[in-house]
Amino acid sequence: MELKIGVIGTGAIGQDHIRRFTNKVKGAKVVAVTDIHVERAEQIAQEVGAKFVKTGEELISLPEVDAVVVTSWDPTHEQYVLEAINHNKYVFCEKPLSVETEGCKRIVDAEVKLGKRLVQVGFMRRYDRGYMELKEIIDSGKLGEVLMLHCAHRNVSSGENYDTLMAIVNSAVHEIDVLRWLLNEDYVAAQVIMPKKTSNTHEKLHDPQVLILETESGIHIDVEIFVNCKYGYDIKCEVVCEDGVVSLSNPSYSSIRTAGKDFTGIPIDWEQRFEAAYEQELQLWVDSVTADEMNGPTAWDGYVASVTTTAGTEARETGKRVEIKIDKCPDLYK
Amino acid sequence: MELKIGVIGTGAIGQDHIRRFTNKVKGAKVVAVTDIHVERAEQIAQEVGAKFVKTGEELISLPEVDAVVVTSWDPTHEQYVLEAINHNKYVFCEKPLSVETEGCKRIVDAEVKLGKRLVQVGFMRRYDRGYMELKEIIDSGKLGEVLMLHCAHRNVSSGENYDTLMAIVNSAVHEIDVLRWLLNEDYVAAQVIMPKKTSNTHEKLHDPQVLILETESGIHIDVEIFVNCKYGYDIKCEVVCEDGVVSLSNPSYSSIRTAGKDFTGIPIDWEQRFEAAYEQELQLWVDSVTADEMNGPTAWDGYVASVTTTAGTEARETGKRVEIKIDKCPDLYK
Amino acid sequence: MELKIGVIGTGAIGQDHIRRFTNKVKGAKVVAVTDIHVERAEQIAQEVGAKFVKTGEELISLPEVDAVVVTSWDPTHEQYVLEAINHNKYVFCEKPLSVETEGCKRIVDAEVKLGKRLVQVGFMRRYDRGYMELKEIIDSGKLGEVLMLHCAHRNVSSGENYDTLMAIVNSAVHEIDVLRWLLNEDYVAAQVIMPKKTSNTHEKLHDPQVLILETESGIHIDVEIFVNCKYGYDIKCEVVCEDGVVSLSNPSYSSIRTAGKDFTGIPIDWEQRFEAAYEQELQLWVDSVTADEMNGPTAWDGYVASVTTTAGTEARETGKRVEIKIDKCPDLYK
Amino acid sequence: MELKIGVIGTGAIGQDHIRRFTNKVKGAKVVAVTDIHVERAEQIAQEVGAKFVKTGEELISLPEVDAVVVTSWDPTHEQYVLEAINHNKYVFCEKPLSVETEGCKRIVDAEVKLGKRLVQVGFMRRYDRGYMELKEIIDSGKLGEVLMLHCAHRNVSSGENYDTLMAIVNSAVHEIDVLRWLLNEDYVAAQVIMPKKTSNTHEKLHDPQVLILETESGIHIDVEIFVNCKYGYDIKCEVVCEDGVVSLSNPSYSSIRTAGKDFTGIPIDWEQRFEAAYEQELQLWVDSVTADEMNGPTAWDGYVASVTTTAGTEARETGKRVEIKIDKCPDLYK
């Protein structure tokens, strides 16, 4: 008995997920797709033997759709998630859960009213083996209390539409989620430093940026966001504890010595770096839906990420330290 | 439409494969199992919703079994593989294909007579990302001709029944297969050196051993086999070419600095080290069976491995260089 | 013809330098020593065949003393350096040049008045092979403009007398000097963040601290100072440029695999880490004195370090960003 | 009081040593030089303020020469070493001690007759920090008994005159000395394997070669000698023990990430790799001569190296395992 999935949005990330459900994820198949780009969606539907439907709402209401995946344009996420909740269907939504904190809140409220968690947000770093090893060490207490985290989020290059705002809202949001998951605590303040700008990008983007976060217990976090670093896709996370340091590695499977250099390759993008995490994320989501018990990143996590990126944006605009105020967490998410 | 698999032999490796088919491999399910340990096999059958049958022959003949997996006691491999061929069913057989070179030959002959490849041998190293990267570099010619390979096969410890013979026949056989696949050429001679023996094992095992192989084009290979190295499961492969060196890495996902040491962990066994390769092996086998076109290690590869391990054994016993004579390869395998 | 050196102060660092001059530095010997701890100084004098004299002033005035090394109590540095300048003798002074910025200024003024550089300050990081490689890459322009530096200064543990003030004034001062030397530009602002405090130290020390510096061209620098990190002496410096990153390595000469770990050792203190840099520093100082032409860190560098640590201290006390105002650099130091 | 040194032979290595004695080695100076290339030697003499003399014999007999360094053409080593012994002067001789085993024996006999060790052979690997760390670990017994060593000796390229013979006699001789020093035991047999030949060299050289050695206690050693590896100067030594492995590192001081690669540089020659070892070797030699007590590699070590390289050569020529027979070691060298 395979889980029958409907996918709303067949852009790049939607296609990747469809490919994973079709070729890799055990116990699931895609049965319906939709997109405003009809032709592309119809073709994909045909390739994987799914039905094409005209709207997300229609897809959600199909009786043969057991669970929904939302990979549409960011501003439409909220409406589809709410609709899925209305139909009492599990829904996996790519980040952001909503482009507005209030939208995240509306989703949280809907789940709380229903009294059941149906939503998972696509924060896939939590499924990376490296981050999982970091969490295991931190939770073990072997290195004592965490004091500081030094992180970097580096992309080879960013597109034309990527602007100054997106460095925190679209890129650092991954660190914002995964670090509070690692630490089991929330942020209380944000600050943003704008270093000298690289000449390798356009006018509308100030790149790099440094986001500084402070947690409830006083842990200091700095996250460099540098989306035109040119040399590779490189994610760093160094956790400095009282009795030692644990750091994320860039996994390598072979190394080469030639022409005076001893080197390993660096991934060129997130798929190369995190493909296994994406597959694990979707496999475990399918398993948890099948078991009727959510265990991934929640709507609440989506809300907290939104509050934090909003504070980060204010901190960048004002150049000041901005306090982060998070509502009381409903029991549903504890 | 899932591929329906029957598994003969529910010992450790059989159980691992059943678990993989059940939880990880897309497009397959286990429908029948058998083992001479009836109780264990019955319990496993029940857990995964498969039928228990009394014999391998019965299992192979079941109409609902599309393809067969042989993970039984080594001396029984040949008979089940031949039986599967008789039933014109695809069969995945763990190494060794047969405990005798003549047995491997009989399987090859049966396939040749049938005119179709049905057999895949469980040489899973070919599916490891590290070895695949090595092969890509070698085949690209970027580093020139391969001249030498320095390899090591180290296990934490070996069991009571592991004896001097098995170092080559059961352990180095993995290198014997993967290295000729890497190099696209066969071996012409073997020599074995017996270094000082570790005190960390029993009487019946001389550990470590060094197997030296020479290929058709003159490439020199040394393989250290050390199955009681105590510190971890460690597989090394350094390929020395005319213009550079490419080496297998021990992938790590995090590193720790504490108590004066900067360290990464070492796997404790092959499952930790090669789990992704096992899953990939079985996934691609299922995909190729479904596509009705074998592309993994063949019965011929099983035969060549047997010829080579036999020569290695003679070399160890005589202390001499032993020539390796391989029959002409049938067209079916080219 | 060896350079005849007088050493003022025979505490730990003084003894280390005397040992280096005696056993390692070519072309120099220690001929006179002094210290307020008379007995210890007399014994050291005897061991190396030097004369013991009662005061620094007397030592400086000895005709047989060609050049002076000041390794006395920090608050006495200034007076001995000024006295050496009065006697027109070269003087190597351990950092700080003076405990007050005004004191550094007085030394600069004395040199400017004399019209000759006689003073070298003991900023030995500039002589470390790793930092020299970083400088070579930066200066080559191969990686484009420098945008950010992420640094850490970690000691195993600090003594009873090490307090909150010293993290910047005594520890980060090394980064303050070496980074502006690396970058060929000065700082314009400082900020200090106080993370969660480690439980592995005493009341009077807030450890760790994070010093954030901004340079003239807008380069962002963060320096973690953590003097009770417990695991080892660890100095990090990652230079993020437009087209790549260059990082300081912790040099290792061997690695070990045992008990499930693949590790290299971490130095326990600065002598283990920087011994070669200390020897190079003193050798080049002796060579430059012999050549009658200073080329190491100047009194001006000592002054700038003092201005910067003072701003860092104010930033820590106020929690605010503090501007760094440096006087116009005299021609003597350009 | 500096040790006054006479240098016989002002070719490349002679000049390097003169430079080290002049600029780096404490307590020594070069007072006399000679070479059959008179003009070059005269110029060097002038540069360092030494006397030029016409012959090695004359140099050795000069009353102002305290100790002799022999860096002349290999076939002349023996005569100068014997002459130095005749004059009861300490002599540092570059390897080989003599081009014939019998010549080494004559030197040993002369020392034994004199009853005093005057000779040190230039096996500088023993002074490399990496090898010293290996020895410390081995001697500590922490990893149990040594069972195997896997080594490689790789040069970027070899000159026109470097032929098949020299791979063992001139290159592997370094491993031959340093490994028996590491292990505290001698070799009993040698074998040589000739892998596929690189196309990056000339007719008279078969490159690479693999030298296999067996020690008294049964330790297996393989040494790859590859003097046209093109990519860098790379020395590997992996010591496999009962309870773990210790390996030589290629020390690096910085690393770079650019253009998809994470790399460290590889030295291009032995001076880059071993400069610190050369300096340490000469410093400790000067110290030991000054203390009138030799503690470096002896004439006996030079003799054993000669016996072993001779056996290696025979093994290469015959393709057979050749036993290594070493005379009884005189008490003088125990």
TrEMBL record, chains A, B, C, D:
GO biological process: inositol catabolic process
Domain Gfo/Idh/MocA-like oxidoreductase N-terminal: 3-123
Pathway stated in the Swiss-Prot or TrEMBL entry: Polyol metabolism; myo-inositol degradation into acetyl-CoA; acetyl-CoA from myo-inositol: step 1/7
Record key words, sorted: NAD, Oxidoreductase
Keyword Oxidoreductase: yes
Protein's UniProt keywords contain Metal-binding: no
Enzyme class: oxidoreductase
Matches recorded under SUPFAM superfamilies: Glyceraldehyde-3-phosphate dehydrogenase-like, C-terminal domain, NAD(P)-binding Rossmann-fold domains
Molecular function, one GO term: nucleotide binding
Domain Gfo/Idh/MocA-like oxidoreductase C-terminal: 135-324
EC numbers, comma separated: 1.1.1.18, 1.1.1.369
One Pfam family per UniProt: GFO_IDH_MocA
Catalytic activity: myo-inositol + NAD(+) = scyllo-inosose + NADH + H(+); 1D-chiro-inositol + NAD(+) = scyllo-inosine + NADH + H(+)
Homology family: Belongs to the Gfo/Idh/MocA family.
Subunit architecture: Homotetramer.
Function noted in UniProt: Involved in the oxidation of myo-inositol (MI) and D-chiro-inositol (DCI) to 2-keto-myo-inositol (2KMI or 2-inosose) and 1-keto-D-chiro-inositol (1KDCI), respectively.
Protein name: Inositol 2-dehydrogenase/D-chiro-inositol 3-dehydrogenase
